[in-house]
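FAQ

Q: What does a record look like?
A: Structure on top, sequence underneath. For example:
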């Protein structure tokens, strides 16, 4: 049997201007899974993951993350349930040093200085950024920026980590390094949800897949089952 869902959507409908982009999505993301959202350009992947993570205004229909509507959760509560990593990590950087970037969320909710230093120190070490603590986030390399954005999302220990195209623009070695890191995060019990164009990544690293086509769920289930179904990805406009 499937594990219980940690992220659920029922009738999730999103409009932008006069256009309806997502048309009543029903979805259950199993707790503990590494789930990919795939689909052709414009299928609605980014809109879907942002709606599930509560980073855009509440859509029509119902979304819950660990039982709570992310669109109505306080920023503090939301950060402890689901962390979000933008396709372009720079979009989320707000501080002038790597240390302060990681510390920001903790300080906002009044975490004591000693604990901030301990938790930021742990994240810096874990993501290979210890000697970059005083560097401006914009001066990091692409891989370092990505790791900083993942660390920032994880510092509140969320149950779900959501990432939009985390390997975008990275070579194979960088992408593999990030996937190893995500596997470690998952091994600690965090559910991982990501958007990707990379079907090799899907085949090699995910447990479950959501195939979107034209704002609807075309297919969803264990990745191995979907891959074994003839023509399933092709009929959503994807090439294996
Ligand atoms: P890609 O793979 O190209 O990144 P995607 O599957 O992530 O695409 P979305 O970015 O979610 O798709 O966009 C889905 C559709 O909604 C697209 O046709 C896009 O042009 C449209 N769209 C997204 N945001 C807006 C907006 N703010 N206003 C109008 N249309 C939008």
């Amino acid at each position: 049997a499937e594990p219980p869902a940690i992220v659920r959507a029922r009738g999730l409908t999103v409009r932008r201007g006069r256009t309806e982009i997502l048309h009543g999505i029903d979805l259950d993301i199993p707790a503990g899974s590494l789930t990919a959202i795939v689909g052709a350009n414009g299928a609605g992947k980014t809109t879907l993951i942002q709606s599930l993570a509560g980073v855009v205004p509440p859509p029509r229909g119902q979304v819950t993350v660990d039982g709570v509507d992310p669109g109505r959760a306080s920023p503090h509560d939301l950060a402890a349930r689901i962390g979000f990593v933008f396709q372009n990590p720079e979009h989320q950087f707000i501080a002038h040093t790597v240390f302060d970037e990681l510390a920001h969320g903790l300080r906002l909710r009044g975490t004591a200085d000693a604990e901030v230093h301990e938790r930021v120190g742990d994240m810096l070490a874990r993501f290979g950024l210890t000697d970059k603590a005083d560097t401006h986030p914009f001066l990091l390399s692409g891989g370092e920026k990505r790791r900083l954005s993942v660390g920032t999302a994880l510092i509140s220990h969320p149950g779900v980590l959501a990432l939009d195209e985390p390997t975008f623009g990275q070579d194979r070695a960088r992408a593999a390094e990030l996937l190893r890191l995500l596997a470690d995060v998952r091994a600690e019990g965090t559910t991982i949800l990501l958007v990707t164009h990379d079907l090799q990544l899907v085949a090699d690293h995910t447990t479950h897949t959501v195939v979107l086509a034209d704002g609807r769920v075309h297919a969803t289930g264990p990745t191995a089952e979907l891959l074994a179904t003839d023509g399933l990805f092709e009929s959503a406009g994807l090439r294996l």
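Q: Is there anything notable about this one?
A: The mean pLDDT is 93.
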